[in-house]
Write a structure and sequence with these properties.
With 90 residues, this protein is an all-alpha fold. It has one domain. It is built from 5 helices and no strands.
Length: 90
Amino acid sequence: MASARQKAVSAHGGNGFLTVAGTHAALLLAQGAGRLLRSSHDRGVIAVLDPRLATARYGGFLRASLPPFWTTHDPQVVRGALTRLNAAAG
């Protein structure tokens, strides 16, 4: 169900979902990435398992809220990155 703020934005011709819920989601996503990677020397993997980040119209808006990362859809590539991170930490 849409919030009152979303309905108000939509009533004035805007995109209520993107303006309210999408902006909030982008903020949370950016904060989560920021908690993992605080400096240029930090390393980690940010896994977004929700396919809507790649398929939904608002996916680009959410991706734009993140720092520049390399991306993959290949689980083997992710496992390799995690293995390298684990070896470097040990």
